[in-house]
Every structure is written in C-alpha cells, then in structure tokens.
Amino acid sequence: MTEPRAAQRSTGSTGTGEQGAGDITQEMRGVGPTAMGRGHVPPAGRSVGPLERVLRLRRDAGRKLVVPYVTAGVVDGWLDVVRAVVAAGADAVEVGLPFSDPIMDGPTIQQASLVALQRGMTPAMGVAELARADVGVPIVVMTYYNLVFRSGERRFARTLAASGVAGAIVPDLPLEESEGWRAEAGAAGVDDVLLVAPSTPDDRIRRICEACRGFVYGVGVMGVTGERAQLADSARQVARRVRAVTDLPVCVGVGITTPEQAADVCQDADGVVVGSALVRRLLDGGGPDAAAELVAGIREALD
Amino acid sequence: MSDTRRTPPTLGVGPDVSTRTSNADARAGVMGEPGVGGRFGRFGGRYVPESLVPACVELESAFRLAWSDPSFHAELDGILHSYGGRPTPVTECARLSAQIGVRLLLKREDLTHTGSHKLNNVVGQALLARRMGKQRLVAETGAGQHGVASATAAALFGMTCTVYMGEVDVERQALNVFRMELLGAEVRPVGSGSRTLKDAVNEALRDWVATVADTHYCLGSVMGPHPYPWMVRELQRVVGDEAREQCRVLLDGKDPDIVVACVGGGSNAAGTFAGFADTDAELVGVEAAGGSAVGNGIPGVLHGMASLLLQDEAGQILEAESISAGLDYPGIGPEHAYLADIGRARYEHAGDDEVLAAFQLLARTEGIIPAFESAHALAWVVREAGRAIPHGSTVLVTLSGRGDKDVAQARELLR
Ligand SMILES: Cc1ncc(COP(=O)(O)O)c(C=O)c1O
User: Is B18 on the interface with A (CB under 8 A)?
Assistant: First the structure.
C-alpha cells in the first residue's frame, strides 16, 4: 500500500482533513457546531460511542446522513478515496476489510474484495492504515465474522478502538450470535451496528434495536449488495418499521445507487449507505474524484 | 434406538474430554439433538445475515413439527422405498476381504436412485419445502450428485430448481450437468473464488438471500446454519439405522469393529455414524488429503457455521484440493468437528493416488465401481488393513455413491 497523496484531495469545499478532524473532535465531545437546538441525548444507561454521538447530533440538526462504503486496498491510495468522500460531504465512512467469501456481497464488492486481497490487503494492514489516516468523520469497519473470530473478539475490538475506528458492522453475525462480540466492542468503545432486513419481524426489530449502537443498518432490499435500477418498496418500509421502535439513526443500504433513490429513501430514513455504486467507479478506473462526484451528488440531493 | 444399548454414564466425566477414561463416556448422548442455537460443543450455530434468520427459524420449526409427525415419516419412508429403492443392501466383499485380511462390508448407497446417498436428504427437504409452501429449490453441488438429487426431487414434486456449481466442477463433472438439465433444472456455473464447492455454497446463499420468500435452500450436507447440520444428519440417519440392523443379522447380533465413511461436508458419514454412535464400533471419517479440515483446520466461521476450516493467519479461507469434486471443501460439518473434539470419531485422510488405486481395486475384485468420494473411505481401509485395522477385524464402509460420474475423469487420469 502506498502512502496517501494529499494532492489528490481536491474535491469539495468543506476544507482540509485537519479541519475535518477538528469538527469530529468537537462533535464527539458533544459541543460541535451541528448540535444546535434539539440537544437530543441517548437514553440514560446506554453507553454510546463516538459514531452514535456524531450521527445523532447531525441527524438531530436536520441533516440527512451519507455513509459511503470503500473496500480497503481496492486501489492504491484508497485512503485518498476515503478523504475525498469526506470532503464531498460524507458523515461517516464504511471501510470494508476484504474477506475471501463475502456472502452478503454481489459481484461488484466481491470483485473489489478479490482485487484487494490479491494486492495483499489484510485486516491488520487495513486497520493500521486507518490508524494513520485522520479523515475527520467516524470510520465504521465492515467485515465478516471469521476475520473477527480468527483475531479474537477482544483483540479485534481493542485494535479497532486503538486505531480510532468508531464502529463495526459484521453482517454474518446476527443478534443471537453476537452477544460476546457486542460486549467486547462496547467495552472497547466501538459501536456495533446491527442490521434489520425486510424479512425481520417487528418484535425482532425491537430486540435488535435495543442491542444496536451507532446507527441501525436497514437492509433496503432482500438481496446482496449491488446496484439496482429501481428503489425497492422494501427500502422505505424497512426505514419506517425501524423508526417506529427506536430513535437511533436509521441508514438504509444495499441497492441504493443514485441520488434520486437516496432522496427517495430518506423521506423515511435518516441516511443512506452507498457501496457498489461507488466501488464500481473505482473498479472502472476512477479515482478519488469519481468517488467524490457520486457522493457530492447524493449530498446535494439530500440537502 | 433402544435405550438398553446405552452404557450408563460413568462417574468422573469432566468437561475436559481429552481426559476421558473410557469409550462409554464419549458415547453417552452423542448424536442427539444439538444444544441451544444448534450447538455441537463449540461448533455449529447460525451465522447468517439477518435477512436469512427468519427463514432458518421457520425451517427449524417446520422440521421439528414434521420430524415428530408420523404422517411425515410415512410419506418420506414410502417415497424412499418405492421411488428411491430403500433399503439398500449391505454387501459382503469376499474377494477383497481375502486380499486385505479384514472382513469388509459395504453399505450400498450407490444403489439408491440417482446413484448416491444424496437422495435421502433431498426428498426430506423437498417435502419440508412443500409443507412451507415453497415452490423453488436452490442447491449447491460439488460432484453434481446433490445437484442431480435436487433436480430429481424438484421434478418429482413439480418444483423449479436452480443448482450452483463451480466452473471447475462443471468441467470435470460434465455428465452430471447434463443430467441436471435433463431433469429440468437450471445449472448456473460459478466463476468466483476457487470455482468449486465452497464458491457454489456462497452463490447459493446469495441467491437465497434474494429469493427466500418462495425458495427453499436445499443444502446438500451436514453443514451451514442451524438447523441444517442436525436436520441433514437426521435425514441421512436411515443409512446408519439400516446398516446397523443389517450388520447384526450378518454378524450374529454384533456390530462391526470399525465403521468408515468419506467426509466432504460429512452427510453420508453423519448418517452412518448416527446408527452406530451408541455402540462400541470405532467411527472413522476419511477426508481428502487436500481438504482435511480436521487434520489441518482451525476453528472459524463460514457458511453459517462455526467449525474447523482451512484458513490463513488472517482468517481468509483457503482452497481445498482434491480429484473428487465432492470432497473439495475447506471445512467440515460442525458435528464432525465436535465428534473429533470429544474423541467419539476420528478423521483420517486419503490422497488422490491411493484413491484412484482403490477405485480400480473395488472394480476388479468386486465388480463395483465406486464414486471417487467413496473410494477415499476404501483407500484408507486398504492402506490401514493390518496396521490401524488389525487383521481379522470387521469393517463396514459406506459406499456413498457409484462411480459412473467419475469414469470419464478416471479415464483421463489413468491414461
Ligand atoms: C458420492 C458422494 N459421496 C460423498 C460426497 C460428500 O458429501 P458428504 O460428505 O456430505 O457425504 C458426495 C458429494 O458430492 C458424493 O457425491
């Protein structure tokens, strides 16, 4: 992996990485500029990490949340892509640590994972690079459970925390299997983001939301990640069903491809996760600018 | 199973199974219902994306209901009898026994309709799918035998069927691809990863995530998320239950000294072992040397289950390698990992060359051409006769399938 090149950080007007870092530090303390008026606090007795704090503040300030996804190591200078999407208006960034058998991912992210693995990316390297990157918004790591299990839940959680990673998404670790991991992540100060699917019954949504930290990941469509021409009806439905039982921020991902779809789903959701549409641009040879352009378009559609 | 055969629990059995003092300890209660959440000791579980959790829960309750319903058993047994050809015989191998110095018996799953044990599982799952109102089956296949069985059941029940098969396997099992198509199934080649069984499972799971409302995932072995490892073992236990009774007739009421089966995911072995778990018979599973999850695996989580897996330092899954497509899998069913843990079964392996030799040996001495997969179990017996297997022992081998599908590949390899 090469060192990130600052010169590529060209898109957007929200300023430099240094300023971004200042923003998040303030927000994490709860005194940020977006904490205007509503002053919503999470229910007492819940420990809340920096991911949830930042997203709640921004959501409560009336901002829709944009969470782009980038596979670690998919291109040289992938951290520049992360910085570029932050500059283009991302509120958090989901970083995928590539796994050999990504069963929740469609062809685009499968390909990105394969490319990243062939380029030598490992979970330890990805996290170490994140530790050196000062991107200015919370980072959420997304990976499959075997990588967590192999490293050891406690060690994995502590490594994430020590590297400044604010949250984790482990899509093949459902509620019943995640107790140990959630405890370790919580102890380390990492928010464990759980998923709610269109197939999840209401009483189960409630239990998932009680255990979830950071934000609730609403799976927009029954299926794996990948671009879709149409927004599925299930995308807004899942957001509504989650919102009915929790005040955690709700971001919908899987199948969100265009700014129009993002705006559509955000009539019910607090934000969107955009993965394959962004990663495809990188696989097609686009760099940070191409990624930033997509994110800026979504930002614009939501503001 | 009657309780009179069970050895009473012995005092002093601690949780540390490695210090067990007798076989009886390891036998008590083995191969019953798994623990909460589908646990076999530290293995098993249900590691699936949230989208699939409700379907696994639904399947578990449908299976529980059906399995305690005599009318379900009556229908299943009826089909396996009048359509599948059960019971399959146990065959004495007089000539090969004389040659290797052990008394060799074969449980003849090669004589089941479609040519392998896979039909036992598939008919059961298709009946369950029908009970759940699902009209489409999706399946993964390695050697093609499970795909053929799934396509067969779909045809029998008027369902549609999609089979995922790695590109490498599509090539080496071309005849089975055509058989599936003849039976009306759609075969989708999988070009990702190692392009073998592991990747076919990935793709079947991805299909299921998108189609779960009207589709049943007809998983072909004792692997995957709860309830599959338990359910598939129960659907395959007919192999072991029949064999046990048949052996008792042949052996004056006694059980074989050693019971051997090949292990890919481990369904024919689990079904066989289930019939002998509470006897004194030694249980031996034989993996492909290039896919030996018990020999070389490390605990991990893949395809919905915690088990032993071939993986690297970071937890990336490694590719298995074997001439037999059906054993080309980097993991093993969680219950086998558990049986290895507690010492109730042991797991050995056989290499491609000795497998090919055993394949020919059985053909020439007994007039039976075995599947490459089944030839692994035979290869271990041939190699270990007079060594790990004392001369004069009685050995039951489950011949999981017939070798027709492998004849073209054998021809290439032997040229
Ligand atoms: C004839 C035969 N035996 C064995 C296997 C391996 O499966 P399992 O270990 O589940 O019995 C296969 C799989 O394709 C097979 O076709």
Answer: no
